[in-house]
Design brief:
The protein is mostly beta strands and 120 residues long. It contains no helices and 11 strands. The chain has strands at 3-7, 10-12, 18-25, 33-39, 46-51, 58-60, 68-73, 78-83, 92-99, 109-110, 114-118. Strands 2, 4, 5, 6, 9, 10 and 11 form a 7-stranded mixed β-sheet that branches. Strands 1-3-8-7 form a 4-stranded antiparallel β-sheet, with no helix packed on it. The N and C termini lie far apart (39 Å).
């Protein structure tokens, strides 16, 4: 069964950190590009970060550059999004996704999302 399960979301104060995980089952993670997306209430979905199949290419939205880091552990078949210096505007549901081609192309497989709330 093909499944992506995100975890690690929660409530954090401004300036705090969270690490999101995306556990893949039924996939061999090293064969896919990984994207992290987020959607805040009333806003369109936004691509936050992406890493290519080889991890040679990574991209970050300007709004998170220098604060977020995307990574993967192929042995654990898990992707991560380390989020530091969190701001209230980072509050959203975060989704991981897998794509067969690379960053900038369609992502075919999606997780169910994990809520991140940044508030004092």
């Amino acid at each position: 069964q093909l499944q992506l399960v995100e975890s690690g979301g929660g409530l954090v104060q401004p300036g705090g950190s969270l690490r999101l995980s995306c556990a893949a089952s039924g996939f061999t993670l090293r064969n896919y590009a990984i994207g992290w997306f987020r959607q805040a209430p009333g806003k369109e979905r936004e691509e936050v970060s992406c890493t290519s199949i080889s991890d040679r290419t990574t991209m970050y939205a300007d709004s998170v550059k220098g604060r977020f880091t995307i990574s993967r552990d192929n042995a654990k078949n898990t992707a991560y999004l380390q989020m530091n210096s969190l701001k209230a505007e980072d509050t959203a549901v975060y989704y991981c996704a897998l794509g067969n081609i690379g960053c900038g192309y369609e992502f075919t497989y999606w997780g169910q999302g994990t809520q991140v709330t940044v508030s004092s």
